[in-house]
Structures are given as structure tokens and as C-alpha cells.
């Protein structure tokens, strides 16, 4: 076969849209969809234990907040959640998006998110950083040099260090607002592998094994997060989003370059190309570490040992935190006291 010809799907004769190097198979658009659906369905069953009838005692359905950003991952997540759980009357899917306040990037992606929610007939809730008492990210970035000068702890922080903390608060606030029982996020296999690698590079095994999903060991006061796409590689999600005609925003955040995750992204891509299956291996290793940790603690779950380690509620905002004042409230102070 010449290099210009498209390989055929391993399951039928149609042209392939992806080649899974880690499994050796080629998949056409419709077999890719079936395969993604199967993997997401399995992950969902593992992460959310839904009884046959999940209606609450109040007669209301159980609610799942699906965090969407207008990007490809969360668009595929919403599509799959609606396809798999939409027909159930005892489960309600609500989409939520957080507006970080980044000119030229967030507005078009939020429009995509709105159209997507409309296409799937799902209610969409918004929250912005100013509504949470933070500045817009564009303003935070302007204040960062001054914050760095005045606050030793803030040295070397990147925009994403702030944004990640604020977004977590935003999602928790949305989950509370809609009374969600679970929060679904669009992390794909590449994202998971990057997070595991970044945490392990920092020697942070605890943080590694506390990555979502949290449903096997929920933490008091936090809506458990689920990550139904965690076994699906980014490239397959991208190919499926294009084939399925899902509208998504292609742009990159202007503050992403330089972030630790970008280096991790390149590293994971190199590992995967040299050793196909490396991403799956990292995720399996994380699962195994978690089991070993629980076994070493005589079956004590992580949330129990976490509680013993002094997890408490932030005295300002009430969010679960290991410190008296949580990271989000601390950063809020830095920003307001460095307004130039
Ligand atoms: S790349 Fe960083 S700054 Fe930009 S939206 Fe993501 S977390 Fe926020
Ligand atoms: Zn096929
Ligand atoms: Zn707080």
C-alpha cells in the first residue's frame, strides 16, 4: 500500500480515521464511535454506582453536573453522557461552565458550549471568576509581577497555578448550586498521564492517588468527581469530535505556554511514541498505587487517613482544605492587596 492510501478499518472495510498504535488496530469513524462509547460506558459503570431507580426520596432525579468548556474533550463527554444516561428519567444531566475572563479565548469557546448544550437539550449554568470574588484572569496576569515581588510564596507561579485553583472553586460552586450528586469532567487519557507524571516528578504520591475519580472514596463536603473519558486518548477524542460534527473551539489559551503541563504533554507524547501503551501503563500504575496504599493502611480509605491528616474546612469559605485558610482564599487576598 502506498503512503497516500488510507488504511482500512480492522473491523470493516471503511477507511480508518485512527490507528491505535497501542493495540495495533485501525478504526473507521463508526467503529471509533462504538469503541469510545463502550469504554465510556464501562468507566461510567465503574465510577458511578447507579441503582436501577435512582430517584431521591424527595422524588427528584439524581443530578450529574457535566463541566464543559467548549473544547473537544468536554464536548465529547457531554455527547456521551447524554447518549448513555439521557434516556433515564431518574438521572438529570446539567452542563456547567466556568468563565475565567480571558479575552479572545473564553468568549468564543463559551459560545460553542452554549450551542452544544442547546443541541443536546441540556440546561447550562455559568459562573465567572468575579462572581466568585476573584478577578478575571486577564487582570490576575497583570497583577502577577507585583504579587511575586511582595509575596515570597507566590514566586515562580504561572497563570495556571491561579486559574486551576479558581476553576475548582467555580465548579464546586456550580455543583452546589444545582444540587449535583456527581461532577463529570472531560479529562482524557493524555491529561491523566500528564497529571500522574507531574505529581510523581514532584514526589507527590498522595496527590497522585487522589486524582479523580473520587466516587470509590468520596470526601465529606465535596461533590465526587468522575472522569468517564480517562481511558480515551486525546487523538481519538479529537477524531471522533470531528467525525461526529461536534462544534468545538480550537484555540489555545494565551497563558498556557510555559506551564508545567506543557512540558509534561511533550514528555508523555514522546513516551507514548517510543513505547505505545505508556499512557495506559501510567494510569494502571496509579490505580495499583492506590490499592497498595489502602492495603498498607489496613483497609483505611484515603479520605479517612486524609481526615486524620487534618483535613478541615476553610474558615473563610468553608471549602475542604488542609489549611485554616484555603489556597483560593489566600490567592484572593494576594490579588486584592496587589492592585497597583
Ligand atoms: S491554560 Fe491555564 S490560564 Fe488558561 S484557562 Fe487553562 S488553566 Fe486557565
Ligand atoms: Zn469500521
Ligand atoms: Zn477558602
Describe the overall structure.
This protein has one domain (60-336): Rossmann fold (3-Layer(aba) Sandwich), CATH 3.40.50.620. Helices cover 47% and strands 11% of the residues. The protein has helices at residues 29-47, 72-85, 106-119, 137-150, 159-178, 189-201, 205-209, 234-243, 260-274, 278-296, 302-308, 327-336; strands at 18-20, 25-27, 62-67, 91-99, 123-128, 182-184, 225-226, 312-313, 320-321. The chain has a 5-stranded parallel beta sheet. A two-stranded antiparallel sheet has the order 1-2. A two-stranded antiparallel sheet has the order 8-9. Helix 1 (29-47) packs across helix 8, helix 2 crosses helix 8 and helix 6 crosses helix 9 (260-274). The protein is globular, with a radius of gyration of 21 Å. 35% of the residues are buried. The chain binds iron/sulfur cluster and zinc ion (2 copies). One zinc ion binds next to helix 12. Iron/sulfur cluster binds next to helix 5.
Jot down its keywords.
binds zinc ion; binds iron/sulfur cluster; Rossmann fold; 340 residues; two-stranded antiparallel sheet; single chain; five-stranded parallel beta sheet
Using the coordinates shown, work out and report the CATH topology.
Rossmann fold
Which homologous superfamily in CATH is the superfamily?
Answer: HUPs
CATH class: Alpha Beta
**Which geometry do the CA atoms define?**
globular
Bound molecules: iron/sulfur cluster, zinc ion
Report on the biggest sheet.
5 strands, parallel
Can you list the strand order of the major beta sheet? 5-4-3-6-7
Q: Order of SSEs, N→C?
A: EEHEHEHEHHEHHEHHHHEEH
Helix content: 40-55%
CATH architecture annotation name: 3-Layer(aba) Sandwich
| Estimated share of beta-strand residues | 5-15%
Number of helices: 12
Low-confidence stretches: none
Average pLDDT confidence is 92
Number of strands: 9
